[in-house]
User: What shape does this take?
Amino acid sequence: MSVGPMILYVHIPKAAGTSAASMFYEQYKERLGVIDMNDWESWQQLLRVLPFHYECLFGHFFYGLHDDIPRSCEYTSVMRNPVDAILSYHSYIVRRADHPFHQWMGNGSLKQFLKLPSELMYAFRNYQTTMLTGKLNATAAEAIEIIERKYPILGTVERFEETVYLWQERFGWGEVKMFKENSRDDIRKNDKLSWAELRGIEELVDVDLEVYSYVRSRLAKRILSLPSEAKAAIRSFKQTGVLVPGAL
Assistant: This one.
């Protein structure tokens, strides 16, 4: 029976979620609950009856889920460069004719995407910060305060292997094998964007950019403080795709 906090993984879209989900499943198997918020009432009933059955809940939920769980919890997640995340979303919507926003995409250009009706564009406005805080229009300061209290590990896509190492160390994981996402982003690089396109995205995710900068810095300091054996294990993980526990 688990006696530690339940892990709540906030799966931010377009931020290495498939890779993370594969790793969390391999570590927790039947003790991993994949949450569909459309069925959250049923999950609440189950967690009241069996509060210690699951060690981790994973899904596209927002911060605040712990209020409905009768045991201690801690959050974790992975952020992505906010500009890249929006470019990925744009690419995804253009490819997917079944996406509800696809019909609004016109010629499929980024310019067309940035001109989506405001009621649709709201879904993308600082969406990473919204998920991490559970609050619309949260400020960067509010997000950082919650992250400091509730997210002992908050990784980034660019430092994903390092993030996995920290998960393994904190959660007592066994051997981890890297699962590479079959990404079809085909996103345009930032240096290929026009000034107007880049500015449009930056205005859309201005708070996300502040929060991401803070998270990158916090993570970098954490990695820098690791002992040499841990850094060697991370380098090996990047080369072999396998992370063996007990590097220290």
The two ends are 26 Å apart (CA to CA). The mean pLDDT is 91. DSSP finds eleven helices and seven strands in the chain.
